[in-house]
């Protein structure tokens, strides 16, 4: 199978995995395979909080050959600009969300990126919506990649590990930002995202801005400007379900006109300069706001310093919402 075919299979699989997993459980119950679903459901009851306690990664799954094809398809690159101290823990603020968050997954959830070479002694945890860990079977598969919940308890668990060497990777724009993931756009939903700043202060954890150039170029979305009926429906559904439903399209497996397979555009995920954060167990709103402003300034500097390397014109700049 070619790399492009593998990528197509993987992309389609991601969209269907939760439905397939739910269908398997329903079939087992309907046909009364109690000797399969009862032990699993019993185990699930006791294992329910694992996504908030560091997860359960599997090097075997992270080393599947399909992930090498996934990385090489775009391709995905990881760029380090500053050395990090492996005796400390860090929060990586990942931008932008895009439609797939391909850069975050490819760099931090597989063994085919340059992460181990660039950041020796570190373990990265990609924090995703708690919703995905409520789906039986799929939650177990998701954890094997190194993904954990994005809840406050989960992030605190990672940052509280003694000895350092742990990185919480948080896609700060969240589902809302995916609705603005149009090619050539650089709109980040971050002005109201301050929870990560408070956690950084309470743990004394350095913040590291990360910008993934090319993330928004993988798909085209149906035009959905603010105030349009489509955007209104998408935002209402996002509030109800907790995740967004962007109407996107790209190319097919054997043709380039239309399909759900992402365009073959390079992704360069640039890890910026760490922002030292003094531990403050009970930070004031003013302290949170000050650090939040500093983070946004460092993120803008990172974007401005590297945008020309990756084909972005001089007049383009980040828009913070």
Show the helix and strand layout:
Elements: H1 3-30, H2 34-47, H3 59-62, H4 65-73, E1 76-80, E2 90-95, H5 102-108, H6 115-118, E3 123-128, H7 138-144, E4 147-149, H8 152-159, E5 166-171, H9 174-178, E6 187-188, H10 195-203, E7 206-213, E8 220-221, H11 229-241, E9 248-249, E10 267-271, H12 285-306, E11 319-320
Parallel strand pairs: 1-10, 2-5, 2-7, 3-4, 3-5, 6-11
Antiparallel strand pairs: 7-10, 8-9
Helix pairs in contact: 1-4
Summarize this structure briefly.
With 321 residues, the chain is an alpha/beta fold.
Mean pLDDT: 90
Q: Distance N terminus to C terminus?
A: 43 Å
- The percentage helix is 40-55%
* Count of domain modules: 1
Instruction: Determine the number of helices (DSSP H or I, runs of at least 4 residues).
Output: 12
**What's the helix-strand series?**
HHHHEEHHEHEHEHEHEEHEEHE
> How many strands, which pairing sense, and closed or not: the largest β-sheet?
7 strands, mixed
Radius of gyration: 20 Å
Features:
acyltransferase; alpha/beta; transferase; 321 residues; two-stranded parallel ribbon; glycoprotein; EC 2.3.1.-; 2-acylglycerol O-acyltransferase activity; seven-stranded mixed β-sheet
């Amino acid at each position: 199978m070619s790399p492009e075919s593998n990528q197509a299979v993987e992309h389609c699989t991601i969209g269907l995995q939760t439905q397939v997993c739910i269908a398997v459980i329903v079939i087992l119950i309907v046909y009364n395979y109690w000797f399969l679903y009862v032990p699993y459901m019993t185990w699930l009851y006791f294992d329910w909080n694992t996504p908030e306690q560091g997860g359960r990664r599997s090097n075997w799954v992270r080393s599947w050959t399909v992930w090498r094809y996934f990385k090489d398809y775009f391709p995905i690159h990881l760029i380090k600009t500053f050395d990090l101290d492996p005796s400390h823990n860090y929060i990586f603020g990942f931008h932008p969300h895009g439609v797939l968050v391909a850069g975050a997954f490819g760099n931090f959830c597989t063994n085919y990126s340059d992460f181990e070479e660039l950041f020796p002694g570190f373990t990265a945890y990609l924090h995703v919506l708690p919703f995905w860990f409520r789906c039986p079977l799929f939650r177990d598969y998701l954890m094997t990649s190194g993904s954990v919940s994005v809840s406050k308890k989960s992030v605190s668990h990672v940052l509280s590990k003694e000895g350092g060497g742990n990185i919480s990777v948080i896609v700060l724009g969240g589902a809302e930002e995916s609705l603005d993931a149009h090619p050539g756009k650089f709109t980040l939903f971050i002005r109201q995202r301050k929870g990560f700043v408070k956690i950084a202060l309470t743990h004394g954890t350095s913040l590291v801005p990360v910008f993934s150039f090319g993330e928004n170029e993988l798909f085209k979305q149906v035009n959905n400007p603010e105030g349009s009926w489509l955007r209104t429906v998408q935002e209402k559904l996002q509030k109800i379900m907790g995740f967004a439903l962007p109407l996107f399209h790209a190319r097919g497996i054997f043709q380039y006109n239309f399909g759900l397979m992402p365009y073959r555009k390079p992704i360069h995920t640039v890890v910026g300069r760490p922002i030292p954060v003094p531990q403050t167990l009970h930070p004031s709103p003013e302290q949170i706001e000050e650090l939040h402003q500093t983070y946004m300034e460092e993120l803008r500097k990172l974007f401005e310093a590297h945008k020309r390397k990756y084909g972005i014109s001089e007049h383009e700049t980040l828009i913070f919402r």
